[in-house]
Amino acid sequence: MKISKKLTLLFFLGPALFVVALFYIVPLFLSVYISFTPMTDWNINRYLTQFIGIQNYERLIHITMYDPDMQAVVITTVTFLVITLTINVFGGLLLALATYFMDEKLSMPYQGLWLLPRMTPVAVYSLLWYYFFHSSGIGLLNAILLRLHLISHPIALGLDPKYLPWGAWFILIFVNGLVGVSYGMIIFYSAFKSIPKELIIAARVDGASTGRIIRHILLPLTKWHFTFIAVWQMLSLLTTFAHIFLLVEWRVVDSTWGQTWALYVFRTAFTTVKDQGLAAAASTFLSALGIVLGIVALRVLGYRKMILEPKGDI
Question: How many domains does the chain have?
Answer without folding.
Answer: 1
